[in-house]
Amino acid sequence: MKILFAASEALPFFKTGGLGDVLGALPKTLAGSGNEVAVALPFYKAIKNAAPEDVRYVASIMIDLAWRHQYCGIYTAVRDGVTYYLIDNEFYFDRPTPYGQYDDGERFAFFSKAVLEILPTVDFFPDVIHANDWQTALIPLFYHAFFSRIPVYAGIKNVFTIHNIEYQGFCQQNFLSDVCGVPDSYYPDYEYAGCINLMKGAITMADAVTTVSPTYAEELHFSFYGHGLENVIRANAHKLTGIVNGIDLKEYDPWRDKLIPHRYSLNSRSGKAKCKAALQKELGLDVRPEPMLIAMVTRLASHKGLDLVRAVFSDLMAADVQFVVLGVGERQYEEFFRLAEVHYPGRVKACLQFDSALSHRIYAGADLLLMPSKAEPCGLSQMIAMRYGTVPLVRETGGLKDTVAPADNEGNGRGFTFRTYNAHDMLDSIWRAVGAFGDKGKWAKITTAGMTYQSGWDISAEKYLALYQKL
Question: Which CATH architecture best describes the domain 2-246+458-470?
């Protein structure tokens, strides 16, 4: 089968979050199963500055975007059996940051149309085009408006994945005519509350819609999670599927990870305690094995459950625990953790930065990973933590519920959970985890279940392939 992924970021070239991880791993897994797989992404300034040696120029074409006539350079590279098409236009992509520009709608409209326009030039006509999030939500529209009746394009199916419904892509009312140049008949599919909503249109027009966990797919039917699109989700429920993301098992392997100071495995775990001691020393925490080392590796945003942490932090620190947080985000949370570090010297460390290497050392050295999210479409951190023998404590939402089976009194399960978005319910779960941590046999049983959990991409990739074949 021929599959073309389109996304605003993808490893190994560019990543700002979980989308880049998914688009780095899923195409590679599908290509390893004998499919012809390609990925299209913008040729950002950041990619050019990295000067990847294997990227070569293919051709250039011109693309019409309403009244605009824009240059489109096509570059390509092949890695791990996946062909990457880098779409070049310095007016749109030679920017200091990939997102947050005044003309993001136009920039990604250009990219979405370019994904379809380049196919004859690169001689790759896929069976399925798999678009991801609002940045590529116009691909189903452009396909139906301009390409579906061209013989070589006929029969291509469009799949759209919602990685996070909070970010929908809002544009002004005249966007479809002035920027996209499509007939007015498509306006009802994309109109929402007097604006153009790109994600709404993709949900309506795609042949199939997926999201990144079965629980999140169900949650999106309700207003608390649907962010205004719950009625659109309900109307298109017949084509919605939830498939849990996986992680790259080669990158996140404590036995082979060169970013951690001591390597270990399921059958040889002594390195785990050594990683904890090394992390405590590195971060200026008291180097002691007794306290449970609780970690958060997260964006500092309200929907990550940081209000719950803040509400009971003094109660938490009354116990013999240590706490480390890695991430950046809203100022109120950064200031809170800075003050906590001052108030609890040797017990709290705030690493207010983005540091991928340090995240590996935290996953390896921590005892408990805290993820009390208000909403979490899938989440990768809990699966990474389990891979390193670090026990996740999560709220039962989205992919957190689907991947973390709660431990019972005998230690059967992979982590600890709570259901209600309530600080003291979270704290009660932490006390249960602290109790289990004091029982070495029970704790070993829980960590073993986490380390043996099948969190790779093989099973999920099979589900995506079955969906493509069904279409």
Answer: 3-Layer(aba) Sandwich (3.40)
